[in-house]
Amino acid sequence: MAGRLMLALPILLFLLLVGQCHGGKIGVYYGRNADDLPAPDKVAQLIQQQSIKYVRIYDSNIDVIKAFANTGVELMVGVLSRTAIAKTAYASSWGHGPPPPSVADLGGVGAPRTTERR
Fold first, then answer.
1. Which domain holds residue 82?
2. Region Disordered: what ranges (predicted)?
3. Cα separation of 50 and 27, whole Å?
4. Minimal CA–CA distance to 30: which of 22, 39, 21?
5. Residue 58 falls within a domain, yes or no?
6. pTM of this prediction?
7. Is residue 5 in a domain?
8. Which residues lie closer than 8 Å to 29 by C-beta, 6 or more apart?
9. What mean pLDDT is reported for the chain?
């Protein structure tokens, strides 16, 4: 009897802990440093078809941002570390205050966040 209890207790504890675990957000990087890339609206369609909910880019190209507007995909615009390091004023202003009007008017684009890429 005591042996069964000693075996059941760790299993019960494991099951309780697994029930409390939540996964993080999984998405894709949308790199744009290549030749013959599809248009941003085609990329946005492909990402929607694959049920991808999170996309990260490293430039603030307005065509890309507009392509993801009202798609339900959360778009994260990152800042390259070398850009932030090279321009102190740029680094200190990034992420403070509201986004530019052209971005703020787009529905369905995720909230701005500051990020770092090394």
1. 24-118
2. 92-118
3. 11
4. 39
5. yes
6. 0.57
7. no
8. 55, 56, 57, 58
9. 75
